[in-house]
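User: Predict the structure for this protein chain, please.
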Amino acid sequence: MPTTTQTQQLQAIAATAKDAQDLLSSYMQLKQTGEPLPDDGQELLDTLDTLYDLHSSMYAATRDSKQETANAKSAMDEKHIGLQNVMYEKRHLLEEIVKCRAFRSLYQDVELVPIEEFHARAPKEYLENQDNPHQLMINRLKFEQLERTSLREQQEKLQAERLALIRENRKAQEKLDRFDKLLDDFVQAATPLEEALQEEKKATTTTIAS
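Assistant: Here is the predicted structure, written as structure tokens:
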């Protein structure tokens, strides 16, 4: 849509073109009658120069207007692209929010110490900011980790003591087994001697009886 300035320029061009047309018609009539042209046609030349200047000015204004329109369109396109990016980010964030709300974290399946026991046994630093559910859950998880670490250390200690007792019992059993073997060997070694003593005893008894 032409601006006010462009409309005025168009009107000026139309008026000047009409003036040039009227002058040209009058000059043609004078030429046909053989009458001399007033001021040697200078007025027509001046009018044509004015028309040329107006046309050049109108062309420059139109070119500038097109450039401004192109710049405005480019700026509008950039803003539109920016708006599309913002809308995309908004949609993406909304999708992430939905995912986060639907996400089931591992901590939800962790069997925590009851809240009463937590309040009774947890260190002081874990009992701060209890009005904040998120911080309270973090503190409970930290306390749970502390408790399980302590229990694991106790379990490892008891396991080490159990293994030590097993090793000691095994050594004691090995000693008993060696003693049993020595005893068996002694018994086996003493058997011939015992038999010889029995024979000697029988022989002595027989001799005395005779």
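The mean pLDDT is 80.
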